[in-house]
Amino acid sequence: MPELPEVETIANGVHDRIHGRTIRSVWTSNKPQTFKTPPDQIAEALTGSRVDRVHRVGKTIVVDLSRRRKTMQFLIHLGMTGRLLVSTPDTPIPPHTHAILTLSGGSGGIKELRFVDARRFGRLSITETAYEGPGSEPLTISLEDFIVLFHHRKTPIKAALLNQSLLHGVGNIYADESLFRAGIRPRRQVGRLTRAELGRLRTALVEVIRHAIELGGSSVSDYVDADGVRGFFQLEHRVYLRTGEPCLVCGTPIQRIVIGGRGTHFCSRCQK
Questions:
Q1: Of 95, 127, 159, the domain-final residue
Q2: Does the pLDDT value for residue 204 go beyond 80?
Q3: Is 262 a catalytic residue?
Q4: How far is Cα of residue 128 from the mean position of the Cα atoms in its chain?
Q5: Contact indicator for 48, 67 with CB cutoff of 8 Å
């Protein structure tokens, strides 16, 4: 599933290509799993609306729209295999395309925003209230709020990082990578981490996420950006999916365990 850096990369790329344009028409596949809002309501709300901004909240892409002084938001959750592509109308339509927004205005002629999702775990919806996401934003949360967020919890720190009601946007890749850089074992109980350890973890998490955004995210499965281009942060992974390979710091083989049903990668020597 695309995590915060991948969703941020896609949102920024889509914004650069379609903000200021007007949605001329909407086509949907009408596949029921894909739509939290009925597809006919989505089409009616989007048609004639102006795209003011495309941004990220947690793992959700948010499209701010306006029409006749009325504002709303189009929410796009990519699920496991979702892609959001900006194409020209003459570009072949990929299999498993479930929504096509045709946009006018701007340079380069007519554009299409296409939502493609092979497994149909993604979700499309409309809201008239500002979407704030389920948890706190990891890139802006203060140290004090970060500490309070995890205070007295008894779950493993890896499971807590994946809890979207605490920090939204963090997934398996960036939880493993930030715990390695902070020197913290993923099974450590959250409530027993010291203030210094939580401070290191917050710093590591922010640094990992920002660096991943700079490199366009991690392409370890189906992820591509708005132009269909893969990211490069997977080349910077120090533990994720490196089971049995030597640690890049100490040479100890990277281990894989399961926490909360999720594969978890760590170095038994570097992480305490």
A1: 127
A2: yes
A3: yes
A4: 22
A5: yes
CATH number at residue 58: 3.20.190.10
pLDDT at 106: 74
Please calculate the CA angle 170-175-180 and round it to the nearest 5 degrees: 155
Asked whether residue 138 is assigned to any structural domain, the reply reads: no
DSSP string, 45-98: HHTT-EEEEEEEETTEEEEEEEETTEEEEEEEE-TTT-EEEEE-TTSPPPTTEE
- Reported as a single tens digit per residue, the pLDDT across 146-187 is 999 998 899 999 999 999 999 999 999 999 999 999 999 999
Coil vs helix vs strand at 179 = helix
- Do residues 117 and 78 lie in contact, with contact meaning Cβ atoms separated by under 8 Å? yes
* Surface-to-core class of residue 209, CB atoms within 10 Å of its CB (0-12 exposed, 13-18 middle, 19+ buried): buried
Is 134 part of any domain? no
Which CATH number fits the domain that encloses residue 201? 1.10.8.50
Chain centroid to Cα 217, Å, comes to 9
Catalytic residue among 17, 21, 59, 200: 59
Lookup result for tokens 């793992």: 59
Question: How does strand 97-104 pair with strand 22-28?
Answer: antiparallel
Same domain, 178 and 240: yes
By 3-state DSSP, what share of the chain in percent is helix, strand and coil, each rounded to 5?
30, 25, 45
> Which residues, 6 or more positions from 19, have their beta carbon under 8 angstroms from its beta carbon?
51, 52, 53, 54
Q: What are residue 76's DSSP bridge partners?
A: 61, 124
Instruction: Look at residue 179 and tell me if it is in a domain.
Output: yes
Residue 109, in any domain of the structure: yes
Q: Please tell me whether residues 174 and 92 are part of one structural domain.
A: no
User: Number of structural domains, the chain?
Assistant: 2
DSSP of 7-25, one letter per residue?
A: HHHHHHHHHHHHTT-EEEE
Q: Note whether 90 and 150 are same-domain residues.
A: no
